[in-house]
Each structure stands twice: as C-alpha cells, then as structure tokens.
Amino acid sequence: MTRHAVRAAVALLLVGLAVTPFLDVEVPGVFAHSLARPGTLQLLGLCLTFGAVALSYDLLFGVTGLLSFGHALWFAIGVYLTDIALTRWHWSLGATVLFALAAALVAALVLGAVSLRVTGIAFAMVTLAFAQAGSILVHKNPGGITGGEEGLGLDVAHLPDLLVGVVNTRYLYWIALAYLLVTAAICWWLVGSRPGRVWQAVRENERRVEVMGLRPYAFKLFAFAVSAVLAALGGTVYMLLVGGASPAITTGSLSLALLVMVVLGGAGTLWGAIVGGFLYQYLDQRLVALASSSVVAGLPAWLRAPLGEPLFILGALFVGLVLFFPGGIAGAVTRVRLPRRAA
Amino acid sequence: MTALLTVGDLHVRFGQSHVLQGVSFEVPEGGVTALLGRNGAGKTTTLKAILGLVQRAGKIELGGADVSSEATHRIVRRGVGYVPEDREVFSELTVAENLRLAVRDPEPRYQLVHDLFPELGRRAGQRAGTLSGGQQQMLAIGRALLNQNRILLIDEPTKGLAPKVVGEVVEVLEQAARTTTMLLVEQNLAVARRLAATAVVLDQGRVAFAGTIEALLEEPTLARRYLGVHG
Amino acid sequence: MLLVTGLGLGALYFLLAAGLSLTYGLMRVLNFAHGVFLTVGAYTAWTVATHVSGNEWVRFGLALGGSLLVGAVVAAAVELTLIRPLYRRHVEQVLVTVGLALALTALTQGAFGADPRPYPSPGWMDQVTLLGGATVPNSRLAAIAAAGLVLAALAVFLRFTRWGTIVRAGVENRQMVSALGIDVQRAFTLVFALGGVAAALGGALAASYFGNIDPQRGGEVLIFAFIVVVIGGLGSVSGAAVAAGLVGVMQQFANYYFGVWWGFSAAGDLAVVALLAIVLLVRPQGLAGTAPA
Asked: Any idea where the domains of chain A sit in the sequence?
C-alpha cells in the first residue's frame, strides 16, 4: 500500500468513526445492537479510550524501551481524582480535568525521577511497587475519600448537561474519539521529531546516547511524564464513560493488560498499540458476555471451566502471540506487505 | 598438512555494524596459527563465532565435521579449549572449583597443570576473584589444558601482564603447542612470531593476509599497515 | 510474637523468592508465573488432603509430597515448552510468563471456583506454642522450619554438587560455562524446577498458614517476593533470605503498630514499597548483589 493509500484509508476510517452515532446499522456477531445505540457507543468509546491509553504506554515501552509494570497508576489517578473532585469537592469539569492532569504530571515527575535511577528489571519492579502502593491507598480509603472496595459513584451535578444521561452517550463517545485523536497527534509528532529519535536510540543502546553528549535520563523522564499525563487524561475520559471509579482499575492486572495490548498490536509501531488496545477492550467485554452465555454453559465440564474464564482465553492467546507472533498484529501485517514490495 | 579448522565466508553482524564480512581461512593441524590485526579488526569476534558464542552465518568445519549450526557446548566437547580475552574466570568460585568445572576428559591432566602453574596448587581454595591478573591468566590457560583438546583458541593471553609474567605464559604456551593445535590472537608481534608458524591477518572484518609469518614480516609495509606499530 | 509471625511471613516470601532469584540470576528471566507454582502447590495439596483419609499427619505428608512433585513437573514443563524456545529473548520470556500467569490463575479459578476453600491441616498447625513468653501459632513455626530447610538444602546444593557449582558459575557468566562444554540449558531447567518445588512448598504451607487456599494468593505473595528479590540482590539466595526476613518482620510490625496507633493497617505494605524505593536509590544492586560495572 502506498503512503497515499494508507492516508486515504485512515482519513476514511476517521470520518466513519466520527459519524458512527448517526449510523443506525446492525453488525451482527460483532455488536449486540445497532451502532447508534448507547450501549454500542459506550463500548466503542471504551475501545477508543483504551486504544489511546495503550498508545501512551507504547510511547514508554515500545518506543523508549522502558518496561513499566505500573502504568495503570496514571490511569487510576485520572479516574479517581476526577471522580473525587466532581463528587466530593463539587468542582466544575474544567477545573477537575486540569487538576487531575497537573497532579499526574507532578506525580510522574517525582516518581519518575526516583524510578529512572535504575534500569531494566529493577525499574520494572519499582514501577510495580509504586502502582501497588497506589492501589493499596485506594483500597484502604483514607478519610473515606476513595470509596474503598466498593468504588465511587459519580455525582453528575456539576457536569455539563450535554454529558449527562444515557441519551447523550454519543457526546461521551465523541470525547473519547477526540481524546484518541489528541493523543495520537501528540505521540506521532513527538516520535517524528527529536525526542522520538533520542527515545528510540535509548531503547537500542543507552550508552551510545551518552557518548553522543545527550542525557538519556532527561529524555526518559520526559517520556515517562508525557505518557503518564496522556494516560491520566484517558482515565478522566474512562470515568465519564463508565460513570464512576472502581478499585479494579488500580490493580496490577490493568498494567499487565496494557502490556498485552501493546504487544498484541506490535510494540513500537504506535498504530499497533491503538489497534491492540481497541481489540483487547472489545474482546474483554465480549468474552465476558460469551463466558456467561448459554453457548459455554452447554459445553462439557472440562471445556467449560477454562472457556468460562475470559482471562484464561486472553492469557492463552497472549502466550501464543508471544511464541508465534512476537511482532504482534503490526508484525504480521508487515510480513504480508513485504513480499509485495520486493516484487 | 591437513586443516583441522576451516572457516568459510563467516559473517557476523551486531545491530547495524557488519563486524565480519566474509572471513575465510584454514588452521593447519599441529601448528600455531596467529590471528593478527589492529584493534577492532574482528579477531575476538572470529573466535567467538567459531565457538558459536555470537550469531553468525557461514561455514565452520572442525576436524572434518560441519559445526556451523552446533551449540557452543557441543562444539567445545569435540575437543576445543578456549582462553577468552578477559580470562573470564568465575570470581565467586575457588581456583579448584574453576578447574573442576572445566573437566571433560575421564582423566584430566591435573598434574600437568600443577607442574606448569604451581601457584594454582598453592591457592586452590582461594576465590578466583582475589587472584592477580597474571594468576587469573594462569588459571584460564590451565583450565584449557586440563583436557586433551584438539585445538586451543587463545585470545590475547599476554594482554595487561607484566613482562616477566608474559615470559612465563609464553613458555607454557610453547610447551602446549608441541602437542596441540592453536589459534592464537595476539597484538604482541614478538610473542606471535615466537609461537606461530602461520598467520592470518584481519583488517576491518576481512582477511587481508594468510600465509607464513615469515612472509608477513618480510613485507614491512604490510606489517605496519595491518598491525600498527608493534613488536 | 510479632517477630515470629513476621519471620513466618518472611519464610513464605523466601520460599518464593529463592527460586525467583536463582532463575533471574542464571537465566535473566523474571518469572511472573512463579506465583502460579505456589497456587499449583496449594491446590494439589488441597486435592490430596481432601481425598485421602487416615492419620492427619500422613495426609499432610502425602499432600506435601504431592505438591512438591507437581510443582517440579509443572515448572520443568513450563521451562521446556515456553522459556527455552525463547532463548536470549528476555523481554519475550517475561511476557510469556505474564500470559501464563493470567491463564493459569484463571484456569484454577474456573476449575475450583474463585472463593477460598478451607484447608484441612493437622490439628497441631492451628495450635500455639509458648515461646519465650509469647504464644506463637505452630503454622508459622512450620513455615520458618521449612524455609530454613530449603535454605540449607540450597546452600548444600550450590556449594557441594557439580550442578550447584555450574549454577553459581552460570549466574556470573553463563556464556563461559557453555564455552567449557557444559549444557547450560539443562541447568536452566533444573533451576526452574527447583524454584517450582520451593514455590509449591510455599503454597502447601501457606494453605496451613492461612487456613485456606485461593486462586489469587500466588499473585499477591509474588509481588512481595519480587520486592524481596530486588532488595536481597538478584541472583543471591542468601540475600533473598535476609531480605525476606527483613521484609516480613517489618511488614508485620508496621501493620500492627500503625494499625493500633492510626487505624491504618496497610502501613506495612506501604512501608515495604518505601523500603524498596530506598534500597534502589542507595544500593541498587541489593544487599548481596555485586556493584554494577
């Protein structure tokens, strides 16, 4: 496919995504209801959101080579701070979002400064530990602020009317789409310019970057902060889509899921992460439906046990992916493309 | 003389850099072949490639058998002794443990090693990491001599050693060379000249000269161009 | 009494951390599925214990033996089928263990249900012993004894056997071990299997310790085991032992005292995280690790 063809296809796709709420079309098997229905739009919105959050993680892991096991922390900060500010402190939406992003930035700079003192496995462990600390804080519910195990509902009193109510799901959908576009624009711009080149150099060979007279630490911190803020923004969008905050999103499982999303799509390719995130979220939601469906219930016991657990299917798929398709979806596409180019 | 080791069209790449670009040469049986060249020419990489310690493409024949895709430990079990550039003894293990680990033959030549390197016997229980540079070199060489290998791959055995120790090491190698074929990487031309009969010179990943060492040294321009000012 | 409980907890961490540390030191693989070995051990022990009748100690012994066996087999199988094919691709190896952990935990949940199941320990486990003026639950003592045995056994293995020497050398420089004609990959499988045995033992003992088994416990303990490994120094069993004791005790003390003073009983867990951060800042190679070049 030539560059122009790709650009045209992407443009077409974006237009399609933008007008989806107007398309009263059924896609049997893929979605339970028509595209224009709030249920479908919410699902699509979630998929778009996670596509963008996965993209933010790809910036950190795929491009810069920093394997973090605690990326969910930033997402959780976005979710919880937005929810707390709206519901407990009764702030306006604008102030809330700014607050959440600022808090994420500050936290990322502080925690990043500490974590990046080490590399490799030690770095991964620190990020895991910090995320775990965050998760503990949320669960323990100091001062009753986070709602603890039960999560926190959303008080919609201070939200603009346009975002309240099931009928207005389309606006939340468009916000998710806008978030994805903003994130993608930022990521592509950064990767295409100097920071991106240094990041990729850091991933390949950090010592060589030092020899070139640059400070890898500063660039790594920059990547860390940018990806954290983007993820936090995603948390805000997610919270609006879902209408609340729950401690499940603070666990290590989400960080691992982000890793799966990025590897699924193809680490380092950026667009792969979007596809991976979108697909993972879709599968996650649909597999739950499948697992509790009558189809699975009718299977013999030894099949029902594994297939009834969506995480099993995801885990097994991931293992197969890593063993046989380490390049992810992007890798498979490249393999198909390459022979044609050579011809 | 038949060739014990044949290297054919060896290519090694590290990321973007093409370190070995089609290296081919033969090591005749029963002699010492010096592998010479300036720093970065690819000498150490060649030894590692022969052993399969780095990913390589090309053909490697040892004693008539094609070992191009064999795992390192299998190649070594065919009778290859290796003395790496930085000695690479196991610092947390004792001298005795280092030696014991290297044993492959049913009757290892402990007596020979202890005769050649009496220090090792005296320091058997000492942690190898606390040995001096020269002593570690003795250990590394002793390790390779324990078994009756068909060929020894030795990488810069005199690097960083005091002149007196260099002399001792060279004597040991001379003795070993009487019974075992050797491929010797050396920057020190005097040492190479003393030990080796044939030479292969590498320059920027390619073979620039292969022949007798005398032929190489008769051409002073060659020696200066490919080896820098040495010996 | 807190000291013993802390050490008991530390003992469980050590059983997991020892295998993790060796695996990482030798193979540079961070095995996220290690927690699953614990789960496998726990559920095997439970299965045996609930299907065997007779003297409660015989039951316990059989359960323990069964879990050790299954732990070794599962770990070896994982290494041979999943880790070995990805030789030298360390990121992919970590990823594959992540996927495996997800899948196997979910499988256990699917097969046995997500709720904790009570574990029939010998009555002695639930009793207490008077030790230096404090009452100490016997299950903690059992855990500490087991950890001590494993530590001793590993020490003997590493120092006095050929494969142990190979492992010690390989942790330092596995390429050179290959260059001596030794099949390093066999050492990998061995170490992985040993780790599996230790983890399974931990799982079976944790069943008595907590009184029940549940599918998530492996993952929960694993995080602390990781922290212990990093604090102790990657690749060092003795470092892991010291760190495990330290972490376990600290966690218990902090949880208790902060719980009593401020009603904040998670302080111990947070304190452990803080300790990790401090260690990484001050001495990133851990207690027993060698300083970076």
From this structure: 34-250
Domain coverage including residue C94: 18-216
Of A122, A316, A317, the CB nearest to C230: A122
DSSP, res B12 = E
Q: Which residues contact A87 (CB under 8 A, 6 or more apart)?
A: A152, A153, A154, A155
Question: What is the phi-psi region of residue B30: left when phi exceeds 0, alpha when psi lies from -120 to 50, beta otherwise?
Answer: left
- CB proximity list for B207: less than 8 A, separation 6 or greater: B23, B24, B25, B200, B201
Segments of chain B assigned E as strands: 3-14, 17-28, 32-37, 57-62, 65-66, 80-83, 151-155, 181-185, 198-203, 206-212
Residues 6+ apart with CB under 8 A from A336: none
Q: How confident is the model at residue A233 (pLDDT cuts 50, 70, 90)?
A: very high
Q: Are C204 and C45 in contact (CB under 8 A)?
A: yes
- With an 8 Å Cβ cutoff, are C177 and B97 in contact? no
Contact B102 C179 (CB under 8 A): no
Yes or no, beta carbons of A315 and C92 under 8 Å apart = no
Asked whether residue B197 carries a pLDDT value surpassing 80, the answer given is yes
**C250 domain-assigned:** no
**Does C7 reside within a domain?**
no
Q: pLDDT tens digits, residue range C154-205?
A: 989 998 999 999 999 998 898 999 999 999 999 999 999 999 999 999 888 8
Of the given ranges (A38-42, A202-206, A271-275, C132-136), which has the lowest mean pLDDT? C132-136
Q: Which of C175, C180, C183 sits opposite B101 (nearest CB)?
A: C180
* Residue C123, domain member (yes or no): yes
Architecture of domain B1-78+190-231: 3-Layer(aba) Sandwich (3.40)
Other CB atoms within 10 Å distance of the CB of residue A320: 12
A260, A314 contact by CB (below 8 A):
yes
CA distance A117 to A217: 8
Nearest CA in chain A to C82: A323
Q: How many CB pairs under 8 A join A and C?
A: 121
Q: Chain C partners of A64 at a C-beta cutoff of 8 Å?
A: none
User: What's the pLDDT score for residue A336?
Assistant: 65
Q: What is the pTM of this model?
A: 0.81
- The HSE-up count of residue C216 (CA atoms within 13 Å, CB side) is 8
d(CA C48, CA C70) in angstroms, rounded, equals 11
Assess if residue C92 is contained within a domain: yes
* Gap between the Cα atoms of C186 and C181, Å rounded: 12
For residue A319, which residues of chain C lie inside 8 Å, CB to CB? 82, 96, 99-100, 103
The count of structural domains within chain C is 1
